[in-house]
Amino acid sequence: MKSNLYISTIFIIAIITLAGCVNIQKPTTSDANYFKGNKGIVLNFLPNMPPDTIYATKSGSDLIESDAFKVQIEVRNKGTYPIDGSGNIKVCASGFDTNLVDGLSLGTVTFPDAVSMQNPNGGIEVIDAGDVTFRIPKTTDSYSTNIQLTTHYDYKTYYSGDICVDPDPTTSEGDTCKPSAYKSATGQGAPLSVTGIETTPAAGNAIIKLTVENKGNGRITNKLPSDCSTQLDFNDYDMVKLESLSIGTNSDVSEHCTPKEIRLSQGKGSVYCSIPLEGSQTTSFRTILNAVFSYNYKQSISKSVKVVMLKTG
Length: 313
Known about the structure:
Order of helices and strands: HEEEEEEEEEEEEEEEEEE
Radius of gyration: 28 Å
Distance between the termini: 90 Å
Shape: elongated
Structural class: mainly beta
Oligomer: single chain
């Protein structure tokens, strides 16, 4: 009797243990879709680098100077480009008087790895911007200054989704879908998002309108500055290039699209394509639309630092 009770007890415990394992099981990373969201490169000052308040104690002729402080910046890639892990990011500093802030050294940074199944949080690089000293005039008790960091980098948006095309709009017999317009709200893992897709029936052609929108917190440009002193003009902003477009298993057919260089207005722009359909299909059908847009992106972060003269005498 005791033996049967012992076996029953072990059996119940085993069931509870298995049930517990099932309850805490999480989806694998292979279930995730990483081509979503509206972020690319994200910058952050590391904590206390530099501190919010800096005390100047070293007396000079006209200026009081602080000890040197480390300035370090985290660069994280929260998007899905570059797939091949290549490319550079140019980082520039501004917002302060160079006579009062010295030692800040920036340049180019290797692109962190993109978000992927193996790296769901994106890659990270840390910039050591040098040992920075802050100065304050002897006639001033304190002042506040900003350290603004601006990144310039190449990026791409990869769009892939199903569409309905109708090679013969004169009849609906045998059709399995209807060309229509719809919006995409999830983003594609990049600051530029494809937000609207519209297909129109046409004899022997797929008429497609794609709407793109800058959903990030920076500006889209058409070139990288050669150095931090290079100023971009009006024509350098808000330009996006349609790099490629394909339907189904076809190769790139973006030559049937216009304009291939899209000017954004209030952050939005559209490209129109009239693509000849291959094959003998006459009824409507669903297929895959793939598009790649390339651009440069510029964005900034800023930190306010208060410099205080610490009187020692």
